[in-house]
Amino acid sequence: VKTPEEFRQHVSGVLSYLGASASLRSRGIFLGAANALAVPMARLLPIFETLLEELDAARRGVCAFVDGFTGVRKTSAEYRLLSHFGLRRVYVGLESGHDPLLAFVRKPGTAADAAETVRAIKSAGVQAGVIVMIGLGGAQFYFSDLVEVPSASYPAMVADAQIRPLDGGERRQQQDRIRAGLRFAAAPPQFATYDIREFTY
């Protein structure tokens, strides 16, 4: 996490790099990091103050990630305060709504924690997008397209547990079953595919 001065220098560097084209990028600001909003408020507020002052965050709007388990540590009032600095949407990494699978991949919380995080965000008037992974648990589990990194511990965990990975057709079927099982009081939300390979530089 950058100090306030480091972050201000970073923003200045980005603006310098973009030059006049910065004015064309008015669709919003993404606060990069896999779990940016897990940062304690005392360190997060100066970052949002910089976004407000340097990038007109209140007009452009800010989006960020938080995982569903540390996101619950912030209250609705804290998310509302961040909304005054421009926070418009939070993408919550649920990964799976199946607690045994969350435990298997060593996530630090439960689906109920993630639901509480989403409730806090939405009650603050901020939009929430929930991210789930298709194929995370292979054929053994129900939920969650996973891109494996050879150096990560996940492939070894799967091999040890003798979990058969899903093929492309099985993943699509799983995705269709999950969508069919969702129920909403109002109109259904939008669905979008997020492929981490598109964001690897």
Give your account of this protein's structure.
This protein is 42% helix and 12% strand. With 201 residues, the protein is an alpha/beta fold. The two termini are 20 Å apart. It has eight helices and four strands. The relative contact order is 0.10. It has a four-stranded parallel sheet with strand order 1-2-3-4.
Alpha-carbon Rg, integer: 19 Å
Q: Classify the beta-strand content into a percent band.
A: 5-15%
Nearest-integer average pLDDT: 82
Main sheet characteristics = 4 strands, parallel
Low-confidence stretches: 143-147
Helical proportion, percent range:
40-55%
What spatial order of strands do you see in the largest sheet?
1-2-3-4
Described by the principal axes of the CA atoms, the overall outline is globular
In short:
With 201 residues, this protein is α/β, with parallel strands linked by helices. The protein has eight helices and four strands, in the order αβααβαβααβαα. 42% of the residues lie in helices and 12% in strands.
Give the secondary structure arrangement, pairings included:
Layout: H1 4-18, E1 29-31, H2 41-55, H3 57-60, E2 62-67, H4 76-84, E3 87-95, H5 99-104, H6 111-123, E4 127-132, H7 154-161, H8 168-181
Parallel strand pairs: 1-2, 2-3, 3-4
Helix pairs in contact: 1-2, 4-6
Features:
single chain; 201 residues; alpha/beta; four-stranded parallel beta sheet; 4 strands
